[in-house]
Specification:
alpha/beta; Beta Polymerase, domain 2; 5-stranded mixed β-sheet; two-stranded parallel sheet
């Protein structure tokens, strides 16, 4: 099975030399890494080529690697129901880089691209309606970026006195945003903590 997938990947790579594809087979699935400027061409070929027939657009998401120069991997998953194959297409882009929308190839990519924009802040050029889809329109930041604080910036609650839902800045008893994470409750400490004396009692 892996040999068949590798052969399919090699034929795709040969047909798309401009995309500089890198082909791997991992966990029984075909993976294709391409240059971002060729993502539309690649997906069009995968949909239309007789030996591919990846008609079904399964998913589009992203992964954040903050320390990399090209911070984000944008990941597409396609399915070929006729040939019973799956493929994962990855492309790496920088934080300030836009990626071409694939809506002309797969119309259903519309909301997926909006979700990736909302969660990661990755813009898709030529998208017909690129706006938030999961968070509020006035939301600050992109929640699935690794540098986004787990507490967020704003909390939403119902105010009984005002009889309405209110948005207010998050108030923390401790400043977790600048917390150094050197907690005395983790690891060995050079001093005894209250209650530790019981650990030596048999």
């Amino acid at each position: 099975m892996d040999e068949d997938l590798k052969a399919l990947g090699d034929s795709i790579a040969a047909a798309l030399p401009g995309a500089s594809p890198r082909v791997t087979v991992e966990f029984g699935e075909l993976n294709l890494c391409v240059e971002p400027s060729h993502i539309v061409e690649t997906l069009t070929y995968l949909r239309d080529a007789p030996d591919c027939q990846f008609f079904s657009f399964i998913d589009l998401t992203a992964v954040d690697y903050p320390v990399r120069e090209k911070r984000f991997d944008v990941v597409y998953h396609l399915l070929s129901p006729r040939l019973n194959h799956r493929i994962r297409i990855k492309t790496a882009i920088a934080e300030d880089e836009a990626l071409a929308s694939v809506i002309p190839v797969f119309r259903c990519a519309n909301w997926f691209e909006r979700e990736v924009w909302d969660m990661f802040g990755i813009p898709f050029s030529d998208h017909p309606d690129l706006r938030r889809i999961l968070t509020d329109y006035g939301f600050d930041g992109h929640p699935l970026r690794k540098d986004f604080p787990m507490t967020g910036f704003v909390e939403v609650r119902y105010d009984d006195a005002q009889k309405r839902v209110v948005n207010e800045p998050v108030r923390l008893t401790q400043d977790f945003r600048q917390f150094d994470f050197l907690s005395p409750w983790e690891g060995d400490t050079p001093y005894a903590l209250p209650g530790d004396e019981k650990a030596g009692v048999k």
